[in-house]
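Shipment paperwork, digital attachment
Item: protein structure file
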Amino acid sequence: MTGIKAPAVGGAFLVSQVGAHAANGFAQRLRKLRLKPHDAGILRMLGSNPGLTQHALSKILGMFPSQLVALLDGLEDRRLIERRRSPQDRRRYLLHLTNAGRKALAEIGRLTLQLEDDLFTGLTEPELDLFCQLLRRIVSQQQITAGVHPAYKQIGRR
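Attachment content:
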C-alpha cells in the first residue's frame, strides 16, 4: 500500500512474522497429504527415534499424555504408525512408523524442501547457513527443545 508507513519492529517481531508465514505455508502444503503440522512433527520424531514410548514422546513434545494419545490414535487409524508392546514391559507400547508412515515422512521431507526453497530464495547459501546457525544458537540459549515446535505445549490447553 502506497503511503502507509510500517511501524518500527525488532528482531523478535521479524522472527515471529517469518515463522508464522512459514508455518502457514507448511500447513497449506501438508493439506495435500491430509496431515496437520502436529502430525508431521510426530512422524518426524518417530522417524528419527523408532520405538519411543508414548510417555517419552509426550515428554519430548511437552504435551499432556492424554492429548498425545488422541493424536496417535488418528495416525494409527490412518495406518501411519503402529503401537507395539514392549518385550520388557507389556504395559508399555513402543511407537513405530509403518511403511505408509515412512512414505508420508518422505513426502513431508519433499514438501519441506520446497517450502525452504521458496522461503529462502532471497538468501545465498552462506547467508542461509549463517542464518540457521544463529537460529540454532538462539534455540540452545533459550533452552528450546531442538526439533520440537513449541505449539505442542498448547494442544489441549486453553
